[in-house]
Amino acid sequence: MKRIVYVFMGILLFSIILKEDTIAPDIITQTVKYDPDDPAIWINKLDSSKSIVFGTDKGANGAIYAFDLQGRIIKEKTIKDLNRPNNVDVEYDFCINDSTKIDLLAFTERGKKQVRIFSIPDMKPLDQGGFKVFENELDSHFKSPMGLGIYLSRIDGSYYVIVGRKDGPKEGYLYQYKIDTSPLGLDLNLIRKFGNFSGKKEIEAIAIDDEMGMVYYSDETHCVRKYFAEPSYGNEELACFGLDHFKGDNEGIAILPRKNGKGYIIVSNQKNNTFSVFSRTDNRYLKELHLSTLESDGCELVTVALNEEFRNGLFVAMNDQKNFYFYDLKKLDLP
Which of the chain's termini has less CB crowding within 10 Å, N or C? Predict the structure, then answer.
């Protein structure tokens, strides 16, 4: 009798948590070992059905997991034995030399206070074991990288990584490094320090809008901050939005571009188990999305057709059950 009561209570609780307009995933990935966080999507230009979703697993012996579009772990593409990998991003067509272009996978390895860069899809390291970041900081708490995004400049074609951290000063919280070639592969060179911090919690999620030349990052329990990603455009803060729309941590950020600079900024409203949607043009609040993820830290999307399941594009969100959820982008109903 007790078991029947417990089952009934569980069903009742589940029905309360999931609202009628909750959007169910098309695919749920295999589980990771420790603590998933941030996804990135690599589009295979030769065969989009063989595109890869990468996801971080933040254990002391963590990994960057590679998933196919059915949510299955691709063992040969997964990078293991990492010390707390946190955030991950991809970029395309970096000129490694005069005749060779490669796609890049970059991520923070917080436990080693460094950034890693690999080539996709062969998953070869290009960083001689890692690039140390925030080296000039005297306080060791200010040296632990978390958030990361890659920016491809539309001005001069330069590639940059913008890196945030677990803790830091009220100003100059983000460091921007230029990706350069070297005889051994790649190198990172510090270009600027910028970005405000409320001091309330931490800054983890970073998203970059290459087309508009903007960088967004989540100042958790405060707002989403917006700056120019182009270094020559200055360090002035352009917006601090969403202050009244987050129940708890505002974290993962995904940018949904539309024509003529229009589109959406989608932000995980983690403690509310929803995603807040803002205008890409003026950053005003638009609506709340009720996806079926729980306490989602990170999200990412692409707008191109990948396969029959995701012919309208793909939205990926971390779920607090050691996995990631895949949604056909049309389900988000963002015209």
Answer: N
